[in-house]
């Protein structure tokens, strides 16, 4: 079968790889019909995630048709159309029982932080991902969810990660009616978080980025304010000024370790790898939230230390909440929001490319070319 193949930082291509096998009676094989590239894949592509092995296949945002099931799979059947949450979760461990599906204790037994994730390095379990014609889906009674027949597949594929992550980002922010919410990052996650912030009753939503085309997009898509940090002397000062010097009620980091905007962070975090990614957006979030405010982090960082202003966290009495999204927990609610038209995820898809063009797709998304917001890969077997 055809699959994306990681060859080292900034080098990916499509190759022939073996068709995946059922390795456990609860596995399923899914024929992928759509697979997105995510900002999280860019951290892998840029070589920022430890133990990203040459030869692995990325892709944790996909939908498809069930092709085969193991003997103990009871919840889905061959030819079902399913969306597959990016978390690989056993459904039975102590963490899954608390609906912390992103922190499953069984699917990534070598680690004590994150659970298994499709196509996300051996740090996240070493599973091959869905930027391929077929993918093995472990614990198939837990993750895969039948797509309602009336749902557009483009909406469905964004329910595997983007919408749940954005929703959880807003939820972890503890947004109260009338709150001023500042979101760092106008990528797919930041854009969708701006939409979700309104659902939680925000009174003012501000998005910060440095890519004009994304700022223009989010202003229209999420009806919010959007500002370019390159045109400010200091984003923290800007946010303080615009909130009567109080600071924002809630700040959300939807950028993670690839952040721009501070030379020292960029050099130590992205070039020399002396810390686990550049923590620029997180700095700004901590320093511009009000005293007693909440910082919600969904931006992904590497698993070792980062240079962050922890003194300010203590002195301001800030609450920090963070996690990988727990997709299965929020999915039923989000399917309702999409079916009722309160959320329109497919509106962020700007590019649709054949899987064979994976190399161009990564280059375009990484370099933010052609006004790209969200690219979707279509495998050749998608329509057969
Ligand atoms: N926690 C989770 O479950 C989860 C799930 C999906 C994605 N993520 C993470 O969310 C983050 C965003 O993902 P995405 O797909 O939107 O990525 P993306 O790369 O498309 O978007 C990131 C945006 O941040 C902007 N940016 C860079 N530096 C900035 C700064 N200092 N301040 C403000 N904006 C800045 C970039 O210009 C870009 O538009 C990534 O770190 C990704 O790994 C987390
Ligand atoms: Zn993702
Ligand atoms: Zn579990």
UniProtKB/TrEMBL annotation:
One of its GO terms (molecular function) is oxidoreductase activity. It holds the Pfam family ADH_zinc_N. Its EC number is 1.1.1.-. Keywords: Metal-binding, Oxidoreductase, Zinc. It is an enzyme of class 1 (oxidoreductase). Residues 25-144 form the Alcohol dehydrogenase-like N-terminal domain. Its cofactor is Zn(2+). The keyword Metal-binding applies. InterPro entries: ADH-like_C, ADH-like_N, ADH_Zn_CS, GroES-like_sf, NAD(P)-bd_dom_sf. Signal peptide: none annotated. Residues 188-267 form the Alcohol dehydrogenase-like C-terminal domain. It comes from the Bacteria. Belongs to the zinc-containing alcohol dehydrogenase family. This is Zinc-dependent alcohol dehydrogenase.
């Amino acid at each position: 079968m055809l699959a994306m193949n990681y060859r080292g930082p900034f080098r990916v291509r499509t190759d022939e790889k073996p068709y995946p096998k059922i390795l456990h009676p609860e596995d399923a094989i899914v024929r992928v019909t759509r697979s997105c590239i995510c900002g999280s894949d860019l951290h892998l592509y840029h070589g920022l995630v430890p133990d990203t092995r040459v030869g692995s296949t990325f892709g944790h945002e996909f939908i498809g048709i069930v092709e085969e099931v193991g003997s103990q799979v009871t919840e889905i059947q061959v030819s079902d159309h399913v969306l597959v949450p990016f978390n690989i979760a056993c459904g039975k461990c102590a963490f899954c029982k608390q609906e912390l599906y992103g922190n499953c204790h069984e699917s990534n037994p070598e680690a004590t932080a994150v659970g298994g994730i499709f196509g996300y390095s051996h740090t996240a379990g070493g599973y091959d991902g869905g930027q391929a014609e077929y993918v093995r889906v472990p614990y198939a009674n837990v993750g895969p969810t039948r797509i309602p027949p009336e749902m557009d597949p483009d909406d469905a594929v964004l329910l595997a990660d983007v919408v749940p992550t954005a929703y959880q980002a807003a939820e972890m922010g503890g947004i109260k009616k009338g709150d001023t919410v500042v979101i760092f990052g106008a990528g797919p996650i930041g854009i969708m978080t701006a939409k979700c912030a309104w659902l939680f009753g925000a009174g003012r939503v501000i998005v910060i980025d440095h890519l004009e085309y994304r700022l223009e997009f989010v202003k229209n898509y999420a009806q919010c304010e959007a500002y370019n940090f390159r045109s400010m002397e200091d984003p923290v000062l800007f946010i303080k000024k615009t909130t009567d010097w109080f600071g924002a009620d809630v700040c959300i980091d939807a950028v993670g370790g690839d952040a721009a905007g501070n030379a020292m962070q960029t050099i130590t975090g992205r070039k020399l790898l002396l810390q686990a990614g550049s923590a620029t957006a997180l700095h700004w979030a901590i320093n511009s939230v009000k005293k007693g405010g909440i910082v919600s982090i969904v931006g992904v960082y590497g698993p070792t230390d980062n240079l962050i202003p922890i003194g300010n966290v203590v002195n301001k009495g800030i609450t920090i909440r963070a996690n990988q999204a727990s997709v299965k927990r929020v999915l039923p609610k989000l399917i309702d929001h999409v079916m009722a038209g309160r959320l329109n995820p497919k509106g962020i898809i700007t590019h649709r490319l054949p899987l064979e063009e994976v190399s161009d797709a990564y280059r375009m998304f990484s370099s933010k070319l052609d006004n790209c917001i969200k690219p979707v890969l279509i495998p050749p077997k998608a329509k057969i």
